[in-house]
Specification:
The complex is a heterodimer of chains A (207) and B (248). Chain A has helices spanning 21-25, 157-161, 172-175, and strands spanning 3-5, 53-61, 72-76, 101-105, 111-117, 133-139, 147-153, 179-183, 189-191, 194-195, 205-206. With 207 residues, chain A is mainly beta. The chains are: A mainly beta (207), B mainly beta (248).
Chain lengths: 207, 248
């Protein structure tokens, strides 16, 4: 029998990132230059990264159908072999070929865009591999606590059908809100709009 | 210490107490109206995808990254305003320090004006203040930075709503599921209790957690006041073993 201690502190409550989130998270993007060289997470990989280059893109749209132009998205994913980048040693200054973590602002038209590689499969809690996916976290004015979701890949239909998380979504139509369509090109694009609210509301998780 | 029996759940995060956080839809804060999901969140125990997360090396930070008084200014000039040090400890729910994690912060200038093209407040920009900085916590979970006290400012919500002086914080922890954004307020500010964004938090005890305390012991004499602001991230369940916590 294992006993777990009860928590002794409460998590700090969340507050909205507010309308000026880009100042703090993507300062160069909003014109605050000279403080840091590059916005954190803007680039996720170097030329040495292994795996299929892809672009993950789409729009963030609110319940009135208006593009959300003041959001920040963060992405966390496994590498092409299904491993997460190991924690960096303190004081390390090496740039890994693939970081697994990206951060992008939405543009004036509500578009987000990550240049990354297609992730491999990661074992799920049931011991079977989950379908390839990336984790997303969305903050903006009007969002009181960061929204957690996932993006899956339409060309992985077989893996998606057996995925531990997708199968927790009872309504198959809602499952579709997490599956990005593939568009061929010099670099393949996976496209998924994120609907904060409305008929096509994205599935968000309590993780 | 009391405990609960949860075989096989070692190392998972404690469930997030959604009643402690603001709900998604908060009519008093109008921006939430069209941005709040209407469906219930789908409960999902963290998988490896959320129990892992990005880490950041110390040396990637610049020397002035945690000095908002000087990090944007040119020619050695300094930002205008009440000089102060903000510091604190990042802990988890087990009261254990969270070392080597990235803490980012941003704020308005001393007049309450943000350096942003959408900002509509007529207070003056300070040419020597950008309003952004960052730290990595030390081995005991502490961060600190130097800045000027942000001003209060009016904002379009109700007819005459004002934000209390505040600093925005973004904290990572060591798992993507610990990711947190919040705001820090200042002890003794009566405007805290009139703010529709503060009021999105249902419990006064939770709001108190976001109020930094004036700390006379850490002031820099003839230079800067000090405020202490501790931040708590979600913690992991750990197995009790001979009164010691194992793992994580």
């Amino acid at each position: 029998m294992k006993l777990h201690p009860v928590p002794v502190l409460k998590e700090s409550p969340s507050q909205t990132a507010g309308p000026y989130v880009h100042i703090g998270m993507t300062p160069n993007f909003c014109g605050i230059t000279g403080v840091i060289d590059a916005d954190p997470g803007i680039s996720m990989l170097t030329a040495d990264a292994e795996g299929e280059r892809i672009i993950i893109t789409g729009r963030v749209i609110d319940g009135a159908g208006t593009p959300v132009n003041d959001a920040v998205l963060e992405l966390w994913q496994a590498d092409s072999k299904g491993s997460f980048v190991a924690p960096m040693a303190p004081n390390s200054n090496s740039v890994p070929a693939f970081t697994g973590w990206g951060r992008q602002p939405t543009q004036p038209d509500g578009t987000y865009r990550f240049e990354t590689i297609k992730p491999g499969r990661v074992d799920g809690p049931d011991g079977r591999p989950m379908a390839p996916h990336v984790s997303l976290w969305i903050v903006a004015r009007g969002i009181n606590i960061g929204l957690q979701t996932r993006l899956y890949f339409a060309d992985e239909a077989e893996a998606n059908a057996a995925d531990f998380v997708l199968n927790k979504i009872m309504d198959p139509r809602r499952r579709e809100t997490l599956i990005a369509r593939r568009e061929e090109g010099p670099v393949p694009r996976y496209v998924l709009d994120i609907h904060l609210q409305g008929e096509r509301e994205t599935v968000f998780f309590d993780i | 210490m009391s405990g609960i029996i949860l075989p096989g759940a070692d190392g998972l995060l404690f469930q997030r107490d959604r009643d402690w956080h603001p709900p998604a839809d908060t009519p008093g804060y109008k921006s939430s109206t069209f941005r709040a999901p209407r469906h219930s969140l789908l409960a999902l125990g963290p998988t490896r995808s959320e129990m892992t997360g990005p880490t950041f090396g110390h040396e990637k930070l610049g020397e002035l990254d945690n000095d908002l008084i000087r990090n944007f200014s040119q020619d050695g000039n300094e930002a205008i305003g009440q000089r102060m040090i903000v510091y604190g400890q990042v802990l988890d729910e087990n009261a254990r320090p969270v070392p080597h994690t990235l803490v980012e912060y941003w704020q308005a200038n001393a007049g309450g004006r943000y350096r942003h093209k959408k900002e509509g407040y007529l207070a003056a920009l300070d040419p020597n203040f950008g309003g952004f900085g960052r730290s990595i916590t030390d081995e005991n979970g502490f961060y600190h930075f130097r800045t000027v006290k942000p001003g209060a400012y009016p904002w379009p919500n109700g007819g005459n709503d004002w934000r209390p002086a505040h600093i925005h914080f973004s904290v990572f922890g060591h798992a993507f599921a610990q990711r947190l954004i919040t705001q820090m307020y200042f002890e003794g500010d009566p405007m805290i209790w009139q703010c529709p964004i503060v009021a999105t938090i249902p419990d006064k005890a939770a709001i108190d957690q976001l109020i930094a305390r004036l700390d006379r012991h850490n002031t820099t004499p003839m230079d800067a006041l000090a405020y202490r602001f501790d931040i708590v991230l979600r913690g992991r369940r750990s197995t009790m073993f001979e009164n010691k916590l194992e793992g994580n």
